UniProtKB/TrEMBL annotation:
GO terms assigned for molecular function: odorant binding
Xref: SMART domains: PhBP
Source species of the chain: Bactrocera dorsalis (Oriental fruit fly)
Gene3D superfamilies attached to this UniProt entry: Pheromone/general odorant binding protein domain
Protein name: General odorant-binding protein 56a
KW Membrane (keyword) present: yes
Cited PANTHER family: ODORANT BINDING PROTEIN-RELATED
Lineage: Eukaryota, Metazoa, Ecdysozoa, Arthropoda, Hexapoda
Ranges that cross the membrane: 16-35
One GO term of the biological process aspect: sensory perception of smell
Cellular component, GO annotation: extracellular space
Signal peptide range in chain numbering: none
Entries under InterPro entries matching the protein: PBP/GOBP, PBP_GOBP_sf
C-alpha cells in the first residue's frame, strides 16, 4: 500500500510541475504574442507586464525548488504530505524536535541554512525578485534573533517568525489588479 501511495504522490507532483510549466507557457504566450492578429506577431511587453512576468517566473522556480526539497525531506523523515505542509505553514501546535528538524531539512536543501546560520545570500538570490530586496532583508533581519537551542529549533523559530511575513508577500503578488 505504501508503494502505491508513494507512486500516486510522485504522479501528482509530476502533474503539478507540468501544470506550472504549462501555466507559465500560456502566460508568456498571452503576454508576448498578439492573439487578435492570428499571425503571432511579437509584441513588446509593457514594463509593468515584464515585471509581473519576472516575479511569476521567479515564483515558479522557487516553488519547484521547494517541491524537490519537500520530496527529499518527506522521504527522509517519513512524514505525511499533510503534516509536512502544516509544518511549513506553522499550523502544528508544539512541534516535536523531529518536526522542527524537518523544517531544518528544507532550509538545508534550499541552502537557506548553511554553516549553522541563516544564509541571507542564498535567500536573497532565490527570493529577491519575488519579495523585493529591501523587504526581504527586513524580514530576514527581523527574524535572525528569533532564538533556538539547536540548529533545528533555530531554523524553526526563524521560519515561524518569517513565514507570516512571506505569506503577506504571497498575498500581495496574487491579489487581482484593482
Amino acid at each position: 500500500y505504501s508503494n502505491l501511495l508513494n507512486a500516486e504522490k510522485k504522479q501528482l507532483n509530476m502533474k503539478s510541475s507540468i501544470i506550472c510549466c504549462i501555466l507559465a507557457t500560456v502566460l508568456l504566450s498571452l503576454c508576448v504574442f498578439n492573439a487578435d492578429a492570428g499571425l503571432r506577431k511579437p509584441k513588446k511587453l509593457t514594463p509593468e507586464l515584464e515585471a509581473k512576468f519576472e516575479v511569476l517566473t521567479a515564483w515558479i522556480a522557487y516553488r519547484l525548488n521547494l517541491k524537490h526539497a519537500k520530496e527529499a525531506c518527506v522521504g527522509e523523515y517519513g512524514f505525511s504530505d499533510e503534516l509536512a505542509t502544516n509544518l511549513v505553514k506553522i499550523k502544528v501546535a508544539n512541534p516535536s524536535d523531529r518536526e522542527k528538524c524537518y523544517v531544518n531539512c528544507l532550509y538545508n536543501k534550499l541552502v537557506f541554512y548553511k554553516d549553522d546560520a541563516i544564509n541571507k545570500q542564498a535567500m536573497k538570490e532565490s527570493l529577491y525578485e519575488i519579495v523585493g530586496e529591501q523587504r526581504l532583508l527586513n524580514i530576514v533581519d527581523g527574524c535572525l534573533n528569533a532564538g533556538g537551542t539547536n540548529a533545528c529549533d533555530k531554523v524553526y523559530k526563524f521560519h515561524a517568525c518569517a513565514s507570516p511575513e512571506f505569506d503577506k508577500v504571497r498575498s500581495d503578488i496574487f491579489l487581482p489588479d484593482e
